[in-house]
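Observation: inputs received (chain + uridine 5'-triphosphate).
Thought: call the complex predictor directly.
Action: predict_structure
Action Input:
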Amino acid sequence: MTAHIIALGGSLLRPEEKEARAAWLGQFRQMMVHFEGNGRRIALVVGGGLPAREGIELARHATSDLDRLDTIGIAATRLNATILQQLLLDIGCDVAPEIPTTTQEAASLLDKYHIVLMGGTVPGHTTDAVAIALARDSSASHVVIATNVSHVYSKDPRDDPDAEAFTNMSFAQLVEITGVERAEPGVSAVIDPIAVGLAQSMAMRIAVLDGRELSRLEAAIEGKEFEGTIIS
Ligand code: UTP
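Observation:
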């Protein structure tokens, strides 16, 4: 069975209120048990969220070396991946016991385990790009980016009430919004421009959805209709 690759935004591990966080983690574990029960193979590429931003911000006072700042971000992504890995092992899921550091390693772990968690790989991109590369290496047909906005918008909806939410869009339209330049360490866009360029070059379909609503993520993995944006 081909694997499902999910880029899970680090912000999802930090919902504002404690209760919301506990509820989300509980639902997340249930969903993963359900996927495993259905024989699905799932790789979760977890973002760095708040620890990445805090670590990069602290170091930025002392260095402007982008690769060094990215390396701090990568450590945070692996911390978040480890948190979810341990919470899934805790309930007996068939999870790879290591956090792979390359997408090739992750792809071979997917042959052995139902669930593989990883964070970043090397400086210069974010976990969105890692998820695209892992989809390539594990012959997955598409990548789901679970983040904290409902859709890709034409403009930032917080600044512009006229921002249009896309249900379907082309890579050309997405590139117009994100560009293809390397982002600053720790600076979050709806999708990493490097990932957009990579996916476009491979014609890899991307689904973007709000991962706070796990029913949407579940629907996307089950191949059902879901609320979000499809880029193809
Ligand atoms: P994230 O993948 O978390 O980026 O990587 P993000 O866009 O902020 O995503 P969310 O908000 O968590 O969903 C955090 C930082 O870690 C470095 C980059 O500096 C990135 O901004 N990083 C991550 C890498 O350099 N390489 C990687 O493979 C992954």
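Thought: report the result.
Final Answer: Residues 66-89 form the longest helix (24 residues). The pocket of uridine 5'-triphosphate is lined by residues 9-11, 47-49, 52, 70, 73-74, 77, 120-127, 130, 147, 185-186, 188, 192 (CB under 6 Å).
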